[in-house]
Task: inverse folding
């Protein structure tokens, strides 16, 4: 599946509408899995990288882990994936 790297949409955190760039829920070597399983969100710049509570900041790791847990649960349910299969694909679990 090909996803746009930016989209005019509402930020899922602060609800500001605008042109927002994508955030792969599962990054690094798992970015392609994020795209394959639609685990991509479009936060505004401040919520993505621009403030102390942004997804990429250390102070906000619980927000990042919650996002990973939410998408892991959704993907495992939608694709009837057991935990062993999940870990084989993504390398670890956030549940």
Result:
């Amino acid at each position: 599946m090909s996803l746009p790297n930016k989209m005019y949409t509402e930020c899922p955190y602060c609800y500001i509408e605008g042109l927002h760039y994508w955030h792969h829920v599962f990054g690094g070597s798992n970015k392609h899995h994020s795209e394959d399983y639609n685990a991509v969100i479009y936060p505004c710049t401040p919520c993505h990288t621009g403030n102390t509570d942004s997804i990429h900041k250390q102070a906000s790791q619980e927000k990042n882990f919650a996002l990973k847990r939410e998408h892991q649960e959704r993907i495992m349910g939608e694709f009837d994936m057991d935990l062993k299969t999940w870990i084989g694909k993504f390398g670890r679990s956030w549940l």
The chain has four helices and four strands. The chain has a mean pLDDT of 89. Strands lie at 6-10, 17-21, 23-24, 40-41. Residues 61-78 form the longest helix (18 residues).
